[in-house]
Amino acid sequence: MDTRHADGVVITIGVFDGVHRGHQALIAAAREQADLRGLPLVAMTFDPHPLAVIGPKRAPTSLATLEHRAELLRRAGADVVEVLAFDEDTAAMSPQDFVADVLVRRLGARAVVVGADFRFGHRAAGTLVTLEDEGARAGFSVVGVPLAGDHGQRWSSTATRALIEAGEVAAAAVALGRPYRIDGEVVHGDHRGRELGFPTANLAASAIAPVQTAPPTVPSDGVYAGWVRLLDSPDAPAMPSAISVGTNPTFDGLERRVEAHVLGRDDLDLYGQPIGVEIVDRLRGQLRFDGADALVAQMCEDVVNARAVLGLA
User: 311: alpha, beta or left, given left = phi > 0 and alpha = psi -120 to 50?
Assistant: First the structure.
């Protein structure tokens, strides 16, 4: 990691999980500082999540893949996204070493913009005051940004994650400023949906629970309205979908899956392609039906309801 610019850079720092509206407000403040100085804005994030190293049992599920996070940071106003590999060596760095090695030597900081509750360095010993003191010595300014929120509650990744896990994806979209999205590769499933007249794009199990990187936050079991995006074709229009999350209890399924039926399309061949499944609103919980006929009748109703939610009715 080395993003030194001839005249230095403005840096904003955070995990930025999900790049929710609080993060967006921070980046907007950093963008303003960068424009005032005529300098590039660097958004520095960490991978994996620091808790995956210092407290694995407390490590959260993710709200965006690293690639999606970088895309969202650039969309929010960052010129460059720098990913600092968070490992035991990074965790052991003192606040002073972090400033000297990462912010000054590697990046050439001229200004650093962080949230008012920013903590850094070994055992989170560094505070905003620490950063200001180190900046005064190293020759960069520090701007602390008040935490953004709504109705007395600040935006947070933890609260957003809890909303998604509870199936309250519409409320989560308010916090994110966009629908929540799960990315993954389309794989073969049981092909039962096609047999029933509702073919689905199934996300790979590794997208739901990968071995090494943080698994995505998955909504509670049920049926949702949303959109499917082709990640290799970013200019292609999003496709309206009815999305199932769960184990398919009608057929005694055991594996938890995310499956998207693109409305009105039975001609798609998406196997092996990366897709993003945007989950807009919950239609119903997961149900067990007496047989295929009852399930198909409910799926027809789900399609009607999904179209209404998505403004297509």
Answer: left
285 burial (CB, 10 Å; 0-12 / 13-18 / 19+) is exposed
Q: Give the Cα separation of 183 and 67 in Å (integer).
A: 10
Question: Is the CB of residue 82 less than 8 Å from the CB of residue 43?
Answer: yes
pLDDT tens, position by position, 283-305:
999 888 777 788 889 889 999 99
Residue that has been written with the tokens 């600092």 in this structure: 84
CA 143 to chain centre: 26
Pair 69, 45: CB distance under 8 Å: yes
Task: Match 């993710």 to its residue by tokens.
Answer: 62
- Token look-up 């295929």 returns 292
CB 80: neighbour CB atoms within 10 A? 17
Query: Residue ranges of the domains in the chain?
Result: 9-154, 179-309
pLDDT tens-digit map of 206-245:
677 665 578 999 999 999 999 999 999 989 999 999 999 9
CA angle 79, 107, 177 (to 5 degrees): 35
State which H helix or E strand residue 89 sits in.
Answer: helix 88-92
Please name every residue paired with 274 in a beta bridge, in sequence order, or none if there are none: 185
| DSSP string over 116-149 | TT--BSGGG-B-HHHHHHHHHHHT-EEEEEPPPE
CATH architecture for segment(s) 179-309:
Beta Barrel (2.40)
Largest CA distance in the chain: 73
Specify the fold of 9-154. Answer: Rossmann fold (3.40.50)
For residue 301, what are its two tokens?
A: 């109703």
- Calculate the CA 74 to chain-centre distance: 14
Is cis: bond before 199, omega within 30 of 0? Answer: no
